[in-house]
Write the structure tokens for this entry.
Amino acid sequence: MANGDAQMARLKFGAFLAPHHPIGEHPMLQLRSDLKFAQQLDELGFDEFWCGEHHSTGWEVIASPELFLAAAAERTHRIRLGTGVVSLPYHHPFNVAQRMVQLDHMSGGRVIFGSGPGALPSDAYMLGIDPMTQRDRQDEAIGVIKRLFAGERVTHESDWFTLKDARLQLFPLQEDMPFAVASQVSPSGMTLAGKYGAGVLSIGSMSTQGLLALPTQWKFAEESAAKHGQTVDRKNWRVVMTWHIAETREQARKEAGEGLMRWHNEYNVGTLMRPGAVAYGSPDEAVDQTAFVEGAASVIGTPDDLVKSIRDLYQLSGGFGTVIGFAHDWANREATARSWDLVARYVIPEVNGLLEGYRTSRQYVIDHRESFERAGAAVMNKIMSHEGAAAALQETMRARTATTGGHTPDLEKAKSGEK
């Protein structure tokens, strides 16, 4: 690591699968591919895998993160599995609590309970839920679920659910299942995290506006925690980034351009009709506007580009605990798998300083070469004192039949020393 990053804590890495899949592929095969992706991340050593809950748009097609993660748990061994997120206003809190407990046991205690108010207005509309009530209902549900996890017998009368002397019959396998709250640009998510001492999944960091808001966002969590007698820890702050990585910027651009343009034009502009979003006219424009403008929130480039972006974001935000990559279909499956492979092989060890010992050791050997000459001299002394050994070494050096070690004696130097 560079000197400016000396105080940077080791980070965890994960992936967030909403998912955002273009319409056209067989749904069964699509889901199987997503499960293979979770398995790949586990094999590569990623720390966390998150998937979401959505019920409309045709692009975001996982309706139950709990069901999907139960299948992923059978295909993985160590990676933690997060609901990203359960939209609490859509469900009775008692049923959510039971499903999360069951998933925790089925996964061997690897679950992170992420919740949100519901992201898509079309989902809430179909369910007849007033958007003005969603955040308050998320807050209310978290409070009840925490009490249920703690073993309380709960009676609670609400305008949208009722509990009468309710108690879980099975509790989480983890002594303290981690909670996380989704946060975008508004202060509501961070404020809720502070109220309950929960972690944060910052989805808003995927936009330039969201990136710039990160330093202020964490203050909302700290202020809310102080108000409610809780504490929040930056190590439980997960920041979502978007990237596509290849060996060169040119290759990354070539692989991601068309899929990125389709995702933006068909989904962000054509389906969600995001305010201010304008369709791109070409793949190159899509890449340039997404990854190469001032304050860009995405990386389309090399492992070194992503390393720099993560370090810059860490300094901008004041620090966080986990980098979450947003999964997408900008590139084809082979190039996408290669991108995540490159992140695991080159970005994670560089960011976390895992290669520092190798580099220090190599430089030490280079800088102290003269100190090691005595080892070669000792070997040469024995060789030159034996006529047969000297002849054998001469033949070996002429034929280059073996790779020499750092202590291999220099025969020509020894001969010149005899003259």
About this structure: The first helix runs from residue 27 to 44.
